[in-house]
Amino acid sequence: MTTVRLPLFPLNSVLFPGLVLPLNVFEERYRAMMRELLKTPEEEPRRFAVVAIRDGHEVAPSAPGLPDQTAVPERGPAAGFGDDPVKAFHAVGCVADAATVRERADGTFEVLATGTTRVRLLSVDASGPYLTAELEELPEEAGEESGPLAEGVLRAFLQYQKRLAGARERTLSSGTDLPDEPSVVSYLVAAAMMLDTPTKQRLLQAPDTASRLRDELKLLRAETAIIRNLPSLPASELTLGPTSLN
């Protein structure tokens, strides 16, 4: 078992390998994390782990009215995550490599990172200025029939895109700009579909690529059928996710 200890950045969203993660970092605990990452030489990866929050707050209450009028201010690296932070997070996350860490004049940071490797959360340490975690790296197994499944998922995904965009009369694109490597397809589709966090988390922690693709094929067919029966639907940009408030 290969383990690694990395800074931990909990979010209200799921990061997948290969996907870009923009962050607006303003809380002191995460600013301290970014200051530490900046000490890493530019030629080396500046890595931290992202986990989805199961029970807790992405932004800790810092003052009455922030984020609500009844908020009780909390301090420290585990603020908002209870007495045992590991229970507040989903067990599988993703390592992020911060290609850009830019400090602003006010001490906040603009960060652009990319998901790289899935990891399992083993323990969380809240003794420092920010959370760190011991993590087990998870291999990506192909599973049976991942190639044909990826082709089916891509076809279903293009139909899903077409329905979401309201382009019912247009000819489907050939998909030449989409990847064909099964694991890449599985993560791209998981990130691009309009799904809730628990469903995305289920896709992230699938035991292998084929299992993830099978699940996605069912989801795509079900979602496309629902959209087809809607009277109207506003256009959506599938490839862009929201920037984290943290």
Automatic annotation (TrEMBL):
Any one Pfam family match given in the protein's UniProt record, by short name: LON_substr_bdg
Domain of life, source organism: Bacteria
Domain Lon N-terminal: 6-224
Protein name: LON peptidase substrate-binding domain-containing protein
